[in-house]
Design brief:
Elements (H helix, E strand, L loop, with lengths): L5 H21 L5 H7 L4 H4 L1 H24 L1 H20 L4 H27 L4 H33 L3 H4 L1 H15 L14 H19 L1 H4 L4 H23 L13 H31 L4 H7 L2 H20 L1 H22 L6 H26 L9 H31 L6 H24 L5 H7 L1
Helix pairs in contact: 1-6, 1-7, 1-9, 4-5, 4-6, 4-10, 4-18, 5-6, 5-9, 7-14, 7-15, 7-17, 10-12, 10-18, 13-17, 13-18, 13-19, 15-16, 15-17, 16-17, 16-19, 18-19
Length: about 475
């Protein structure tokens, strides 16, 4: 039997960390009903279990990559693992909903520290001609882990209670830490600045958090109330200030020159709106199965499993196809298939259970769309970037996707809460599916119209 190469071992090890971080983005979906039962008076606060994690993770990604380059990727990866594990233990021990939200932020910070470091550790182990393959596997592990979260979470919740969805991380983190100490080699970029624009990072965190707050509270405050409008204006003022600061400081959190590259802009926009629809779909579908059809957490997770399985089968061939015919075309077709699947769900699903003749084939269709899109969008963000801009480009792509997922879940959660107070509680689900279909379709349009191979002049301007 042929021995694994060192590169393969490093890829597997770092993928374990990415798997855990991605899994925890969606694994709590099936546990949401258990959280509500535990703290029924804090349903709106519980939305932040999803949103706070995604916002903190997104903000951390923008600065963590720079810190890993400056102070050591191995150190960052192992430190991130331990922080993530500590946050997971705190989540499992949470006595209140607010405590869990804070613990989720700690989890997210650990995840943000280890993610860019893990990719950097992988890249140095592969020659240039094999990096696309390694990146594709690394990205697919993250995306498919997020997609399979409800399956894993459902089994854990029913078998061991909601605490187990967090405690399951602990043995994996300990094992990865022990192996990483021996296997990984320390590396750093000696030319990387030792400073980070923390004020810039604070601006983007506050801006996105306030925007999410307005969405979460919209059913209580009203979309056009003075409070909502004021917070909306303040959020965009902070985000505007963030853009201005990134254009002025020597070492910005985000190098705005990257947006001069059409493929980077396309990937950022497409990734943002795709994950809005993707994570919203996981959340809404799970809630329908549990609330309307009365499925248990395990059964709801298994009911959705054809989607991730179909995505897993399609993801690898999709990457090869993208290299041959273009990323834009693959994402465009995938987004169209996924949009049709969501619309089919919206128009034909009924409160009466009809799984095998309706839900099962619908999951297969949407899963194929997800498989075509999820890893292709990830690889498109760095497809033509020079090595010196790879980390920043990857961080931008991951950040846009995490912000999209935070806002997507916040939007549909607000719709479901608002509809639950009306005469037709299922209307919230249908409104959410319509929103999802629109944003997923937009992700395909963005890639088809904006994704282009950069010219030599554009690359020179972005460096």
């Amino acid at each position: 039997m042929k021995k694994w190469s060192r590169g393969a071992k490093v890829l597997v090890l770092t993928s374990v960390g990415v798997m855990l971080v991605s899994l925890d983005i969606s694994i709590v979906n099936v546990a949401f009903g258990s959280f509500v039962a535990e703290w029924p008076e804090n349903r709106r606060t519980l939305t932040w279990i999803f949103s706070a994690y995604n916002i903190a993770y997104a903000a951390g990604l923008l600065t963590a990559g720079r810190l890993a380059d400056a102070f050591g990727r191995k150190r960052a990866f192992l430190t991130g693992l331990m922080i993530f594990m500590f946050g997971s233990i705190l989540c499992a021990a949470s006595p209140t909903a607010v405590f869990m939200v804070i613990a989720r932020v700690i989890q997210a910070i650990g995840g943000a520290i280890l993610t860019p470091a893990s990719l950097a550790l992988v890249l140095r182990e592969f020659p240039v001609e094999r990096r696309s393959m390694a990146i594709g596997i690394w990205g697919a592990v993250g995306g498919l882990s997020a997609a399979s979260g409800p399956i894993v979470g459902g089994v854990l919740v029913d078998s061991f209670g909601w605490h187990s969805v967090f405690l399951v991380n602990v043995p994996f983190c300990l094992a990865a830490f022990a192996v990483g100490l021996k296997l990984l080699h320390e590396s750093r970029d000696e030319s990387a600045p030792r400073t980070v624009d923390y004020f810039g990072a604070l601006l983007v965190v506050l801006g996105v958090a306030l925007l999410t707050l307005m969405i979460v509270q919209s059913d209580e405050w009203g979309w056009v109330s003075n409070r909502s409008v004021s917070i909306f204006v303040l959020a965009f003022a902070l985000l505007g200030a963030f853009v201005v600061r990134c254009n002025r400081v020597a070492h910005p959190v985000l190098d705005m020159r990257l947006f001069r590259l059409p493929f980077v802009t396309a990937a950022a926009i497409s990734g943002f709106v795709f994950t809005m629809g993707f994570f919203a779909m996981i959340f809404v579908n799970t809630q329908w199965l549990q609330v309307v059809w009365g499925y248990s957490p395990t059964l709801s997770g298994l009911a959705g499993s054809p989607g991730p399985l179909a995505a897993a089968v399609v993801a690898a061939p999709a990457g090869k196809l993208a290299n041959r015919i273009g990323h834009g075309k693959v994402v465009g077709v995938g987004a169209l298939i996924m949009t049709c699947g969501i619309l089919w769900m919206n128009f034909f699903i009924t409160p009466e259970i009809h799984y095998w003749d309706f839900y099962f084939p619908t999951m297969l269709v949407t899963g194929i769309g997800v498989g075509l899109c999820i890893s292709t969008i990830s690889s498109s963000a760095t497809a033509f970037l020079p090595v010196t801009k790879f980390a920043m480009g990857s961080a931008l792509n991951n950040t846009s996707r995490q912000i999209g997922s935070a806002l997507g879940v916040a939007l549909v959660s607000s719709m479901l809460v608002s509809a639950s107070k009306s005469n037709d509680p299922t209307s919230g689900f249908h409104n959410a599916w319509l929103l999802m279909s629109g944003v997923v379709f937009l992700s395909g349009v963005a890639m088809l119209t904006l994704f282009r191979r950069p010219t030599a002049e554009q690359l020179a301007q972005a460096i």
